[in-house]
From TrEMBL:
One of its GO terms (molecular function) is nucleotide binding. This is long-chain-fatty-acid--CoA ligase. The keyword Nucleotide-binding applies. It comes from Cyprinodon variegatus. The lineage of its organism: Eukaryota, Metazoa, Chordata, Craniata, Vertebrata. Pfam families: AMP-binding, AMP-binding_C.
Amino acid sequence: MDWSRFWFWSWSWFWSLAAGLLVAHVLQRFCFPFFWKDLLFLSKVIRYGARLELFKLTARVQTVLDRFVDQAQRIPDKPFIICEGSVHSYRDVDLRSNRLANAFLQQQRGPQRGSCVALFMSNEADFVSAWFGLAKLGCSVAFLNINIRSKKSLLHCFDCCGARTLLIGSDLLECLDGVLPSLLENNIQVWTMRSHCEHPQVHTLPDRIAAASDEPVPADLRAASSLKTPTLYIFTSGTTGLPKAAVITHLQSLKAAGGFWAFGATERDVIYIPLPLYHSAASLIGIGGTIELGATCVLKKKFSASQFWTDCRKYEVTIFQYIGELCRYLCNQPKTEMERDHRVRMGVGNGLRQDVWREFLSRFGDIKMCEVYGSTEGNLCFMNHVGRIGVVGRSNFFYRLLFKYDLVKYDMVKDEPVKDPQGFCQRVKQGETGLLLAKVSALSPFFGYAGNKQLTEKKLLRNVFVKGDVYFNTGDLMAEDQDGFICFRDRVGDTFRWKGENVATTEVTEILGQVDFIQEVNVFGVEVPGHEGRAGMAALTVRPQFTFDGHKLLEHALRDLPPYARPLFVRIQEVMEMTSTFKQQKFQLVQSGFNPSTISDPLYVLDYQQNSYIPLTEQIYQSIICGERKL
């Protein structure tokens, strides 16, 4: 053998291979810089999705509750929920939920398998115990927004989901004093987590829980045979009208529970949840994600910017949930020497503005902010697993194969998608802003709203690109750049977001229209510098022979609207502007904002100190713009 030739060819092959790998690496870094991150993330998504698909081949689905019961057996002594300084292990919550389930089983008129129970509770460990205890009985649970206090809205919530039982938290009983008679008249059984109640028809639960067994109720009661079985109802102020009960199936719950894991969280993480549990972010992603990991969560009763970092240090928090407004509040706090002294490595949430994002990282350290895009009832989710500032998610060729979505041209003036001569929607070009539509399919189903097929159908667009296709209308304007990063631009229709809540303009319009001096009212949201979302504004016309009364208007809003839905600004018009299709004109009003120097109509601003809507002067306007006046 010619060894010299052998070694020559060996070295040639080695150096060729090395050069090829180097070139491939360079090409990957410059042409496909996110290849490995995308591959890792998609592999996780596919693995998790495959697990859910396997449930379709079996007679039983492993639900989030089943996963919790398994974790309670596997890690019984591990802290599950830390709330108000109290530590509740997986075993503690499991046993207490067993007692609650057994307490209801002993009641002749108690909730039964297949019935729906409404939960009206603040953030506390018993929220989760009640949720799981009722689920162990085979009940679906409706999470009521605790800001909803009006009789009409609450009764509407019960009608939507068919709940005939209400469980009230111990700290919220007085909030419903004016509504309780109506609930009882409608044969709704009312229970409270308070040990003593003077109202004879309101039943107390703690005494019954204390006397009940902590043995598990039969597992057959909670068994689910289909991923599409409804398990929760979460109320959302969608595009129109009163609160709507979004149907949450086991499929949606399980998908949400995988969020933290997909972002790289582990069982060693401690997750801080300052968001309300009646929203899907805290309950489905937060609690469900904690259970999926077998991790620990710190449940905050109410978000406090001044206590946030103290809590993070005290409980060694590594991940926190947020909405954009929350991060802005933290950035507005006075700087301290301790604000970078923490173990937080990741934030998971939505609605974070670019400027706040950059300031947050600059002040509080290298924290990976993972934006999640998706609505409670929607069938599409984007996840910014790369951590790129200012984007809500990332897409690529493989993602589009799994999840079908499109951005279509939208006419802001006419408030509708742009159609071609054949009546089909038109896709926008890369980088252009368009309305986000998500295709409805077996892989991405849309379950709609309970008790209202008309509203469910209203969220769907049919014959979008070809006859027979069906898409979910997100109501959001988005843009996708050449690298596949997706940015949120705006909301369309009759909804805007303020203080982390969706405000349905038609509901606010209906309530304000009851004021005697108002002839017509048009509610919309306007941008305020330095604030997330849009602040509520009501353009209204005054009835003949009447005058505008700011005190009376605020009194009415205080009584019938939650704080986030009360208009901050009022604009008095002589004639209400209409579109060519006889809809109220919002686009021009939104664009003109609330600047008194450029608007000739009289403007007013909400003033809690004077308990009225007062004239919006140039001085007040400047104090709002500069951030001196709190909204």
